[in-house]
Amino acid sequence: MLIWFLPVFLAFLLIGLPVFFALLFAPGLLLWLNGQERDLALLYRNLYNGMDSFPLMALPFFMLAGELMNRGGITLRLVDFSQALMGHLRGGLAHVNILSSILFAGLSGSAVADTSAIGGTLIPAMQKNGYTRKFAAAVTAASSVIGPIIPPSGIMIIYAYVMGESVAALFLAGIVPGLLVGIGLMVMVRLLADRYDLPKAERVIKSGQSITPLEALVSFVLLRINIAGILVAAFNGVAALLGGIDVNRWLVFLILLPLAHLSLLRLRRSVSADFRAVCKKAVAPLQTPIIILGGILIGVFTPTEASAIAVAYALIVSFFVLRSLKLSDLPDVLTKSALSSATVLLLVGAAVAFKTVVSLSHAPEILADTILSLSQNPLILLFLINVLLFVVGMFLDAGPAIIILGPILAPIFVDLGVHPVHFAIIMSVNLTVGLATPPMGLVLFVASQVSGEKVETISKAILPFLAVEILVIFLITYIPAISMTVPRWAGFVQ
Questions:
Q1: What's the half-sphere exposure (Cβ side, CA atoms, 13 Å) at 374?
Q2: Fewer C-beta neighbours within 10 Å, C or N terminus of the chain?
Q3: How many CB atoms lie within 10 A of CB 229?
């Protein structure tokens, strides 16, 4: 029965049915045709059960926090910060686009939001500075896939909910792969610089930068806390290598805090006042992923509680520190985040309901036998599953795809010796890159809408960047340490 699901599902999509309804009607129709009408009630009851989950509350909270930050002008601050750091490189604005996507990923966790926000700002700027529109749109679409990989990631939360894994472990496991994608894209931009005659840029810093006393004070405090925190982490790493020196970490932090202050004073003399102002303006927004990960790692709050803290922090920063948001903006912000959250949660509920059909049809056992009949070599099977996930990602959003395929595929590969967290990253990165893959990648259509360029043209221009991302996928697949080192170092996986 299940073999007919995909054709029926795609047929519903082709006639214009939303994904949510297609995910419900397709299995419902198959159950009815198979004479299992009594199971229809179970199917639709699981729609509610799939959404009625405390861990999933993190999704609407993270979406609300991202919307608050975006509406408050955070995107422009991140772009200015990226341009101050990397604008002087050959193909500078392309590098700025990629770095902005990396930074914005820590706020949104969404490829579509990244493409819309970053593209709306940088694509016109890149055109104005001599880049072709298709190249600007391709860079934007390619870099946007970093959003769902670097924490906080919505698809990681969904995977953890479906498969019973640690959200913190998945968040940590996604850091290095996300950065690796970004670095790979920057290398490709440099390789294409001569071929496409990309503009030679300068470090662009708007003169006469101003910052409010309150924002300056907040940035002053947060910068020193962050530097001291990095030094404490380095100290703990050295202590662990030396056999575990038992020293109170808060005492170490207080000792290193003055050192952080002195290092920043020394750095202050070597940069201009405008450069310092640009960096200070980026400090408060960039605390969001730090607060989320830091709080989870030290055990202060759970991932769901972290999402609520992120909303509270976004409100405080937007209203009181940056003063970039007004009360009159809240209804629109709440409406947009509510609609986005409802869409995601409905898809999650529908996909969980679909699992009913999967279990009733014994699909996991059948698929496991089919996959294992192809080969007993885990390396070959991982290659084949990469191809499958890559193709699925072209047609289906990562969240529903994870809920549908995760319970089927994960047990097979865990039994073959693949770590559950490692397989989660393989799935997530594959499906996310699929969003930028021709001909059906979702972010290609968003980039087309933002830039005004045809999807076909963007699809051709994105191919060199897509090659980099495919290479990263295989590196992640066959070198588990890329994903597993950070969560192991933090003690979240064995």
A1: 13
A2: C
A3: 16
Per-residue confidence at 58, pLDDT binned at 50, 70, 90?
confident
Q: Are 462 and 453 in contact (CB under 8 A)?
A: no
Phi, psi at residue 269, to the nearest 5°?
-70, -20
SS3 assignment, position 200: strand
Tokens at residue 37, please?
Answer: 């009408």
List the one residue out of 91, 107, 189, 119 whose CA is nearest residue 148.
107
User: Which residue shows structure tokens 């991302």?
Assistant: 469
Q: Rounded to an integer, what distance in angstroms lies between the CA atom of residue 119 and that of residue 109?
A: 16
Please provide residue 200's backbone torsions phi and psi, each rounded to the nearest 5 degrees.
-80, 120
Q: Which two tokens stand for residue 97?
A: 């686009």
Higher pLDDT, 356 or 407: 407
Outline where DSSP puts E strands in 248-403.
none
282 near 322, Cβ under 8 Å?
Answer: no
Cα angle: 358, vertex 362, 368; to 5 degrees: 100
